[in-house]
Amino acid sequence: MENNSPTAVSEKIPFWRDVRVLRVLFQVVFLLGVILLLAILYTNMLSGLRRLGLTLNLNFFQDEAGFGISEGISYDPSDTYLKAFWVGILNTLKVSIIGVVCATFIGLFFGIARLSSNWLIRTIAAAYVECFRNVPLLLQIVFWYTAVVAQLPNIRESLSLFGGAFINNRGVYLPSPEPTSSLTIWLWFLGAGLLLAVFLYVLRWRQLQRLDRPGFRAKWALPAFLIVALCGWFLTPGSPFTLDLPVLQGFNYQGGMSFSPEFSALLIGLSIYTSAFIAEVVRSGIQSVVKGQREAARAVGLKEGQTLRLVVLPQAVPIILPPLTSQYLNLAKNSSLAVAIGFPELLGIGRTMMLQTGQSIPVFAMIMVSYLVMSLTTSAAMNWYNRWITRIGR
Amino acid sequence: MEEQELTQEIKPPANTKGLGRWLKDNLFNTWYNTLLTCLALVFLFFALKGFLTWAFTEAEWDVIPANFRLFMVGSYPQEQIWRVWNAIYILSVLMGLSAGLWGGLVLRFAVALSGVWFISALLPVELSTRGWCLGAIAMIAVSFFLGRGRTSLRPWILGGWILSFPVIMVVLRGFGENGVLTSNWGGLLLTLILAVVGIVVSFPLGVFLALCRQSNLPAIRWVSTTYIETVRGVPLITILFMGNVLIPIFMPGLDINQVLRMMIGITFFSGAYMAENVRGGLQGIPRGQHEAAQAVGLNYVQTTLFIVLPQALRSVIPAIVGQFIALFKDTSLVSIIGLIDLLGVAKSVIANPDWLGLQAEVYLFAAVIYFVFCYAMSYASQDIETDLGVGKH
Q1: What is the pLDDT of residue A394?
Q2: Residues in CB range of B175: below 8 A, 6 or more apart
Q3: Does residue A224 fall inside a structural domain?
Q4: N or C terminus: fewer CB in 10 A for chain B?
Q5: What is the extent of the structural domain holding A26?
Q6: Per-residue buried b or exposed e for A332-346, using 16+ beta carbons within 10 Å of the residue's own CB
Q7: How many domains, chain A?
Q8: A169 and A283 share a domain?
Q9: Is residue A39 part of a domain?
Q10: Quick one: DSSP state of residue B303?
Q11: Comparing A187-191, B84-88, B102-106, which segment has the lowest mean pLDDT?
């Protein structure tokens, strides 16, 4: 045959029309474009730094910081920049963790209140959610700081709660428990109680399995543990803890725990703002469990509490958890708004470091990496918990 | 006898309607609800009493009218204020025409806006301001009657809205030294400009990033995913600081002013969140839709534009509007960087020695403005949802 057969021609596709080749080619061009862009930015950065007379190095982290930090773990201005940065990270973690706990409780309360059969309660909860959700968090934090916390009475006229806790415009002072030498004895009691509780829990679990009916597994374990702990408390010679009360000495309160006005304002702002979102998450999660499930549970004779624990929550929690996680992460990230009121957290300390050293690029990199690590670990942990809870729920 | 018993009339249950019945059903149906109602009433009484006493006897509201111009436009020069009013008039005409053409939600907003102008005109303001306010009402009313029923105009008006964005920017800025420098933009005006620019630019950016993340080309998917996850893991204020400090270092040749830097920061940040919302919608599109589109011979661009996106976007309207609201609130962060937006004005008013100690009044006023805009957006979102019948198809 002198002529090529038409089929042979159509089988051999030219490379510029071969989808497989085009895909690879397109991606290579795209990646080259991205690399080119980054390279341009990099050269720009070098020339920009040269203009400003700066060099990129990380040695300054070992230098003496020289600025004071008003709160956090023990730190001295003669410590290194790295230590100062670490103080900032810990302060961010502290306000985030306490904030998450507070926001969860307040949010749960208002989320459940929004589902109340009582019109008044429902309406108050809805008003709470709408008011705090639709006003910027920064405005709320600044409001709490300047219009509420700063307007509290001065030290001499502190508001006193039960004679042990004091609130004034310099902060909140609470009594703190101080461990004494007899704490170890009580800890032994606690350990014994825990062992007993585990034993009773397993016993009760087996019983419920044998009877093949739902029930409260910790029904025996919980009271047993509490009784042992309580008996231990009274049997221990001397009290395991003493209360360290804040006492007015000179111009300030000494002893106990104290929270600065900045911390208090930030915590109130973050907790209330986030709780409004958590309330919505909780409400929509519980509402997403169809009504028939509840009615069926009642029909087979489960009590109100059992219906909630065995039917509604196992279905609602997996729906609630992912948006709840993102609210927790938002709270942690929003704690950076503390720069507006001067609470020394990660970003605030980073900013001071930048102003002192001029090394903005490495400091920004450190800040971003810290936040990314926090976000990624939290979402990983919550994903793991989510998988665990969906597994036992099914 | 039996028959009579069967046909015996049963009285209807008494009192199924009326206030008493409603109270009994909704407030006093069980003993604990009665208790809760009483507790809530006591709480409400004291809270309201405290607030109203403060608001009417202690609070000094003079600070608001005295600084009203500052709250609205910041340090926008007095003799150039006509620029702002011209921008408002352009929007009023478009709003009136749209209200006439579409009715419904737009009409309700137009009426509300006219009400705001009317009340403003009644307040003790300068005569010229009063004139501008009444003019705005006239604009809305006239264009409403012009637009009513002329459905053929609809595409033109949509085009007009899109075109109005750059036009208004030019009107507000003017040209060169005779215009108003962006550093003089402030107050609510700046907040709204930042929010609108952020919304208008970050929406297409988000759609683009979401499509990239769903792409079946790994290189594009990775780059997009890295960008989205990095931005979402970092607080906005960090990105704004970086924009402020690093853009001049990375882009030495360009003279990018601070307002523009903030716009870039907000847009890049919001784009990543928008992408995740849109991705949720894209994942909800059944595979059959793509296959059907391919079967009738549509290419990738056509499939995306005409089949996938319209369905995906419709299903995530609540999430997208939620992101718009978040963006609007987030514009307040520029006050940390040093721009004088609504919150920035509030801070500067409080710092003024003439108005010391009025934090509560000033912040409450700013909060109410933010609240009105956010609430209007979420109201609109719910309305659009019911109109499009999201969740019913």
Answers
A1: 44
A2: none
A3: no
A4: N
A5: 6-51
A6: bbbbbbbbbbebbbb
A7: 2
A8: yes
A9: yes
A10: I
A11: B102-106
pLDDT at B2 over 70: no
Nearest residue on chain A to B333, alpha-carbon basis: A138
Distance CA A120, CA A114 (A): 10
How far out from the chain centre does Cα B17 lie? 39
Amino acid A44: pLDDT: 84
Predicted pLDDT of residue A2: 47
- Per-residue pLDDT at B198 exceeds 90: yes
Query: Of chain B residues 186-225, which have a CB less than 8 A from chain A?
Result: 217-220, 223
Indicate if A24 and A151 belong to the same structural domain: no
- B237 neighbourhood in chain A, CB within 8 Å: 336-337, 339, 347
A63 belongs to a structural domain = no
Non-local CB neighbours of B41 within 8 Å, separated by 6+ positions: A120
- Do strands A247-249 and A171-174 pair parallel, antiparallel, or not at all (unpaired)? unpaired
| Mean pLDDT computed over B246-262 | 82
Lookup: tokens for B110? 């137009």
Asked if the model's pLDDT at residue B295 lies above 90, the reply is: yes
A41 touches B250 (CB < 8 A): yes
**A110 and A34 belong to one structural domain:** no
A112 shares its domain with A164 = yes
- Smallest CA-to-CA distance from A282 within A150, A165, A115, A394 is with A115
> Does the beta carbon of B332 lie under 8 angstroms from any beta carbon of chain A?
yes
Q: Which residue of B has its CA nearest to A354?
A: B245
Mean pLDDT of chain B: 86
**A199 within some domain:** no
Question: Tokens for B87?
Answer: 């921008």
Q: Are residues A262 and A367 in the same domain?
A: yes
CB contact under 8 A, A146 and B371: no
The confidence band for A334, taking pLDDT boundaries of 50, 70 and 90, is: very high
Q: Report ipTM for this prediction.
A: 0.88
Closest Cβ opposite residue A118 in set B27, B245, B329: B27
Q: In the numeric block, which tokens belong to residue A290?
A: 């169809």
Q: Given this model, what pLDDT does residue A392 score?
A: 57
- Please enumerate in sequence order all residues whose Cβ is within 8 A of that of B48, keeping only pairs 6 or more positions apart, or say none: none
Residues of B in contact with A143 (CB under 8 A): 359-360, 363-364, 367
- CA–CA min distance B269, chain A (Å): 13
pTM of the model: 0.86
How much is the pLDDT for B393?
A: 43
pLDDT band at A1 (very low <50, low <70, confident <90, very high): very low
pLDDT in tens, A79-104: 888 888 899 999 999 999 999 999 99
